[in-house]
Amino acid sequence: MFRLRACLKIRRNSVTKPALPGLLLSGCLLVAGCASPAIPSSDDDASDIPRNPVEVTPIDALRGRVAGVNEEVRFVVLRFPVGQMPAVGRRLYVYRDGNLVGMVRVSGPHRDINTVADLMQGNASVGDEVRDR
């Protein structure tokens, strides 16, 4: 409210050279009047937002893939990224196309980026995603 009144007074009176620095610091513009600074429209902000959604995965999330399945004895071979091998006894969930289809328990042994897990519930197919949540 104060800035608006100050701007209106200054516009009515002639501006002298000593008042110019104070005028610039107050935010008033002589050329465009006492308009507030331009606020970007929502169209301008929309260009900064990516068009394709990005899946965000927490760093501590454990994710792998089913590399092999043996239905007769109900075990699977799991493949994980380097440095993300689950501990023996850990329970993991099997997802196919985003739907929960089974649960496995890591039994070992570990070799390179592969490990073996027992199929506890449901089923699994090669390529299914395995994660801890």
Describe the structure.
The chain has 133 residues and is an alpha+beta fold. The chain is built from three helices and six strands. The chain has a six-stranded antiparallel beta barrel. The radius of gyration is 32 Å and the shape is globular.
What attributes characterize this protein structure?
133 residues; alpha+beta; 6 strands; 33% strand; disordered N terminus
* Structural class by sheet pairing and helices: alpha+beta
> Which range does the strand content fall in?
25-35%
User: Measured on Cα atoms, how large is the radius of gyration?
Assistant: 32 Å
User: Would you count the extended β strands for me?
Assistant: 6
Provide the low-confidence segments as ranges. 1-13
Topology order in helix (H) and strand (E) letters: HHHEEEEEE
Sheet with most strands: 6 strands, antiparallel, barrel
Give me a quick take on this structure.
By secondary structure, the protein is α+β, with helices and mostly antiparallel strands. Helices cover 18% and strands 33% of the residues.
What topology emerges from the helices and strands here?
Layout: H1 2-12, H2 19-26, H3 42-46, E1 63-70, E2 75-79, E3 91-96, E4 99-111, E5 114-122, E6 129-131
Antiparallel strand pairs: 1-2, 1-6, 2-5, 3-4, 3-6, 4-5
